[in-house]
Amino acid sequence: MNEEKLRFYKSLGLKLTPQRLAILEYLENNRSHPSAEDIYNALKPRFPSMSFATVYNTMEVLVKKGLVKELSVESTRKRFDPFTHPHHHFFCKSCKKVIDVGTIKNNIKIPEELKDCELSEYQIIFFGLCPECKSKSKQ
Amino acid sequence: MNEEKLRFYKSLGLKLTPQRLAILEYLENNRSHPSAEDIYNALKPRFPSMSFATVYNTMEVLVKKGLVKELSVESTRKRFDPFTHPHHHFFCKSCKKVIDVGTIKNNIKIPEELKDCELSEYQIIFFGLCPECKSKSKQ
DNA sequence: TTTTCTATCTTAACGTATTAAATTTATGAG
DNA sequence: CTCATAAATTTAATACGTTAAGATAGAAAA
């Protein structure tokens, strides 16, 4: 990771521990949608003493800083999205894979019902079977 | 609950036990978005022996039959929606309340990325603070 | 009514997320 | 560079939501 990146993370008020740097590195240019366990497993080899608490703590900080988004595609566990540009998602009900979907052309109008709410964002989630699971289910 | 409703539920192949009838009755004309616990608490007074397993089992059946939808607004617990007409949702990050939003005028085009997927539905979820939590946060 | 079959209940286990306390570490001031 | 401090990590325990298995009860069918 280069100097500029390091300065950037520091400028956010983040203490740069080896574990955090490893998590940041893992997330950089990562277009998957890892669960806490995915992150934990990925870093375990390099940091055998690493705990889930560290993963959750770090991810909470990163979400607050806007460096990562939290997905609500599953109702049993958190999924994180390191790609923060506006986009949407598909969720495969069978294999739990998430597929990125570009922004939807027709821009959504803010519904009348929400005129007194403070809106921060919206997500569109498509549900179904990914190509692999689709063909498996037809056998 | 009237005869017609009973016949309808039976026609779906549902065995009509008192607990199920109570859950169905609770859901009828219910425009909230209960969690399993909400349902459990609502029925506990009438059915002190009722267990969570029964709630989950029944809801699973109802979701399969299409009488209830499962929402993915929270990543730590399930929320159910007994109102199955097409519509979308707002989720308050603070009090976890869900607000219904009518269908969005511009119909969403199926994204190119998903052309090989088998799509079953999509959800649009707005996130932010509901009017109450918004005013509280400004004090 | 008797039999069969399914739903329910209880209990326990599971996966995931969160918390508290004690220890260790990064950082900035001196 | 050393030290003091605040912050992060570790460990362990705990909370929460969900699911599974076996025993029981109850509804439907004959």
Write structural notes for this entry:
The mean pLDDT of chain A is 93. Chain A contains 5 helices and 5 strands. The relative contact order of chain A is 0.12. The first copy, chain A, has a 3-stranded mixed sheet with strand order 4-3-5. The first copy, chain A, is α+β, with helices and mostly antiparallel strands and 139 residues long. The first copy, chain A, folds into 2 domains: 3-71, Arc Repressor Mutant, subunit A, CATH 1.10.10; 87-137, 2-Layer Sandwich (Dna Ligase, domain 1). Helix content of chain A is 35%, strand content 19%. In chain A, helix 3 crosses helix 4 (52-65). The interface between A and B is large, with 47 and 47 residues. Strand 5 (118-129) of chain A pairs antiparallel with strand 5 of chain B, so a sheet runs across the interface. Chain A binds a DNA duplex (30 and 30 nucleotides) through residues 15-20, 35-37, 49-54, 56-58, 75-78.
